[in-house]
Amino acid sequence: MTRLLSVRDLRVGFGQDPKANEVVKGVSFDLDAGQTLAIVGESGSGKSVSALSINRLVDFGGGRITGGSIELTRADGSVLDVTKADERTLLGIRGHDVGMIFQEPMTSLNPVHTVGAQIEEAFRLSKGLTGEQAHRASLDVLGRVRIPDAQSRLGYYPHQLSGGMRQRIMIAMALAASPRLLIADEPTTALDVTVQAQIMALLAELREETGMAMIFITHDIGLVAGIADRIMVMQNGVAVEQDEADRVLDAPQHDYTRHLLRAVPHFTSGAAVRGDSARPTASEPIVKVDDLVVRFPVGRAWFKPKGAIHAVDGVSFDLMAGETLAIVGESGCGKSTTARALLGLNTVTRGDIQVTSGRSGRPVQMVFQDPFASLNPRLNVEALLAEPAIANGQRLDADLRKRMAFLLDRVGLPQDALSRYPHQFSGGQRQRLCIARALMLNPDVVVLDEAVSALDVSVQARVLDLLIDLQHEFGLAYLFISHDMAVVERIAHRIAVMFAGQVVEIGNARAVLHEPQHSYTKRLIAAVPAVERRRQRFAVDMTQVPSLVRPAGYEPPAAQWREAGEDHRVRLEEQA
Amino acid sequence: MGKLFSALFRHPSGRIGLVIIGLYLIIAVLGMLGLTPHDPLKLFAIDRLKPPSATYWFGTDLLGRDTFSRLMVGIRQSMVIAFASVAIATLAGTIIGLLSAWWGGVWDGIFMRVMDVLLAFPAILLALLIIAIVGPGTTTSIAAIAIVYTPIFARVVRGPALSLKQRDFVDAARTFGSSQPYILTRHLLLNLVAPLAVQVTLALAWALLTEAGLSFLGLGTQPPTPSLGLMLSESRNLMQQAPWLMIFPAVTIMLGILGFNLTGDALRDILDPRTQRREA
């Protein structure tokens, strides 16, 4: 094995005085050719900055390397200290030696050029290929990233492709230069789980085909288990632990690594579902949704819509007081639309939603996914918490302040929070605020729409615990919308799996997770990354989600169900 | 608000702009209180066309009136018209922009097409048209300039309001059952203060120029009330003999516009969300 990269005591700072504002405080690591290093840490730990220093992209974000060295062995065998290289040399490095893929494939691709033109450009810049040669090379590389029907895909624009497809295009562009090192900065964070599994499998296969080294940056230590040779754990700009992957995962030395591993939602195929409160069969459900249909018209021809997006197509479920029903599925499956329909936030095409009015006039409240977007940045906490009460005719008086103080205490926020503004809180604290706000009206049902998805894993675990406590204390029913099976396993009593606008499997959480019946449920569960399953290998599964745009007047065939056990129903699959 | 001012003062061009505007406001107030070195309307018949001196700081005009005193009152006149017209335009534009964004559909179409028609005319031409119909005067100038700049505010408000309307916190407010006026003011308008503040300072500069232009054409402030445009217009034929009659009003107009523009640019820098740090 030859040494490819050797980083010694790397320090990177930002701002006017980079020495005073160091984000990376002395990180050292080595990487051999063909090896994969995973850098794991929570947001702000300096993991991305460390990796971006290797091709000096960090300069463009306002960062400055304040100390240390980065020695990169180039293709001709010469060793170069990247920290001292000039911009010309760096251009060569970025084009030839070090490839890069980013988190958000939509913003890394130019929306006004076809993906073909962009891949050909990558070949022109790195290898000097033009015209027919570049075209052929592009076709070839699309094949390598397993994009079917490559010839026609080259003519597509980025917006016509799904997130997973776009990320594959980005990988193809990075491969164009045949890099000896590929830096992947959270490449799957913006993607759905099954797509994430596809990309991870693809990266693993490509690494074997090309023999390139990889630096894989992620916040999810569970994700890297299957791909990394070495793992470096970062916290506050310092590498707290680095070693062989197996050693880090099985015998973590540092407290923070142990903490990360504990916080990773461990998916155990239904073994860890909640044991409390069995479903009361006798009582009436508090929410009853019957054959809910939500369609959005698309494409107008002479004032009549040409077709419709069948966002939700015949969804039925009911929710008992005090129970958690999780709706799982991937983006675009209609789970959020279902939740929003329940709150009256979008118009319902057909179907029936019955909510038994319990303790208050507004029995259903909601917590949104993004705690940064769901709190008005210009209002202080007192105004934010008071809003639901004021909207329902209460006044901002001593009683209301007492309730606010009580709820702040219950969600674990300090009393002096009332006079502060949202930007003064962390993501997890903001989500606690949103939960407190949803409880202001004393609801019976809280809809949690990906409520913990935007949070760091350790924060996620604490918010989940809080939710379970609050559920017991206030007797709340949760409709928990999520794409994350491991999270769902911890909080759900029952699970409904949605695919392409329809519920394909619904039932008791243990049954659904332990003995999944529908092929989609099985795929979803297989895609969950887990430390425990790191030695399993998955083939690259290229199944695409079907289009939900249907011609006007189209009605799907009636659903056929089969009972798979007590409280466990599965939709029969069409024989293809 | 105090924080904003200190931030403006730390910004290099913001400091210059603030100083200029402050100076103009002081002069305008002094002009309003009649605290001028001489009576701006009084004719010093023996001191006609005197160059700047210790008695007449900026010289005198053809009728022997003191240019400095007239400039002070002229600045007052310009400031009153600029602030009044921009205030009206801001109010009207904000309401129209907010409601079009909120109601959407047909209302949006109607409101914004009317605004488009107004925007299609050059500002000064539209103002001329309005004054030609109603007749010149201070009130008409205010009204005309307000109408001319209303569409700009409507557009500045509508764009961000449309995107704010889609934000989660507006959806959240709907789930509590918050009233429409509450959502419009607390959730939309409060978040529009930054772009509006920038637009207001820039519009003040344009309004100052438009007012000067109208007066120059004889359609704004009517003599004998002094105004910057009018003074420029009177100086036209005396450019050779008495250049101070042209230079001082011209520089006054220019500095005023510069002051508002510099402040506007500084405000834009300070309030730009991309330069604001979001704490995670």
Automatic annotation (TrEMBL), chain A:
<dbReference type="InterPro" id="IPR017871">
    <property type="entry name" value="ABC_transporter-like_CS"/>
</dbReference>
<dbReference type="GO" id="GO:0015833">
    <property type="term" value="P:peptide transport"/>
</dbReference>
<feature type="domain" description="ABC transporter">
    <location>
        <begin position="287"/>
        <end position="525"/>
    </location>
</feature>
<dbReference type="Pfam" id="PF08352">
    <property type="entry name" value="oligo_HPY"/>
</dbReference>
<dbReference type="GO" id="GO:0016887">
    <property type="term" value="F:ATP hydrolysis activity"/>
</dbReference>
<keyword id="KW-0547">Nucleotide-binding</keyword>
<dbReference type="Pfam" id="PF00005">
    <property type="entry name" value="ABC_tran"/>
</dbReference>
<dbReference type="GO" id="GO:0005886">
    <property type="term" value="C:plasma membrane"/>
</dbReference>
<dbReference type="InterPro" id="IPR013563">
    <property type="entry name" value="Oligopep_ABC_C"/>
</dbReference>
<keyword id="KW-0813">Transport</keyword>
<dbReference type="InterPro" id="IPR050388">
    <property type="entry name" value="ABC_Ni/Peptide_Import"/>
</dbReference>
<dbReference type="InterPro" id="IPR003439">
    <property type="entry name" value="ABC_transporter-like_ATP-bd"/>
</dbReference>
<keyword id="KW-1003">Cell membrane</keyword>
<comment type="similarity">
    <text>Belongs to the ABC transporter superfamily.</text>
</comment>
<dbReference type="InterPro" id="IPR003593">
    <property type="entry name" value="AAA+_ATPase"/>
</dbReference>
<keyword id="KW-0067">ATP-binding</keyword>
<dbReference type="InterPro" id="IPR027417">
    <property type="entry name" value="P-loop_NTPase"/>
</dbReference>
<protein>
    <submittedName>
        <fullName>ABC transporter ATP-binding protein</fullName>
    </submittedName>
</protein>
<dbReference type="GO" id="GO:0005524">
    <property type="term" value="F:ATP binding"/>
</dbReference>
<dbReference type="GO" id="GO:0055085">
    <property type="term" value="P:transmembrane transport"/>
</dbReference>
<keyword id="KW-0472">Membrane</keyword>
<feature type="domain" description="ABC transporter">
    <location>
        <begin position="7"/>
        <end position="261"/>
    </location>
</feature>
TrEMBL record, chain B:
<dbReference type="GO" id="GO:0005886">
    <property type="term" value="C:plasma membrane"/>
</dbReference>
<dbReference type="Pfam" id="PF00528">
    <property type="entry name" value="BPD_transp_1"/>
</dbReference>
<keyword id="KW-1003">Cell membrane</keyword>
<dbReference type="GO" id="GO:0015031">
    <property type="term" value="P:protein transport"/>
</dbReference>
<keyword id="KW-0472">Membrane</keyword>
<feature type="transmembrane region" description="Helical">
    <location>
        <begin position="79"/>
        <end position="102"/>
    </location>
</feature>
<keyword id="KW-0813">Transport</keyword>
<keyword id="KW-0653">Protein transport</keyword>
<dbReference type="GO" id="GO:0015833">
    <property type="term" value="P:peptide transport"/>
</dbReference>
<feature type="transmembrane region" description="Helical">
    <location>
        <begin position="188"/>
        <end position="209"/>
    </location>
</feature>
<dbReference type="InterPro" id="IPR000515">
    <property type="entry name" value="MetI-like"/>
</dbReference>
<dbReference type="InterPro" id="IPR050366">
    <property type="entry name" value="BP-dependent_transpt_permease"/>
</dbReference>
<feature type="transmembrane region" description="Helical">
    <location>
        <begin position="114"/>
        <end position="134"/>
    </location>
</feature>
<comment type="similarity">
    <text>Belongs to the binding-protein-dependent transport system permease family.</text>
</comment>
<keyword id="KW-0812">Transmembrane</keyword>
<dbReference type="GO" id="GO:0055085">
    <property type="term" value="P:transmembrane transport"/>
</dbReference>
<dbReference type="InterPro" id="IPR035906">
    <property type="entry name" value="MetI-like_sf"/>
</dbReference>
<protein>
    <submittedName>
        <fullName>ABC transporter permease</fullName>
    </submittedName>
</protein>
<feature type="domain" description="ABC transmembrane type-1">
    <location>
        <begin position="75"/>
        <end position="264"/>
    </location>
</feature>
<feature type="transmembrane region" description="Helical">
    <location>
        <begin position="242"/>
        <end position="264"/>
    </location>
</feature>
<keyword id="KW-1133">Transmembrane helix</keyword>
<feature type="transmembrane region" description="Helical">
    <location>
        <begin position="16"/>
        <end position="35"/>
    </location>
</feature>
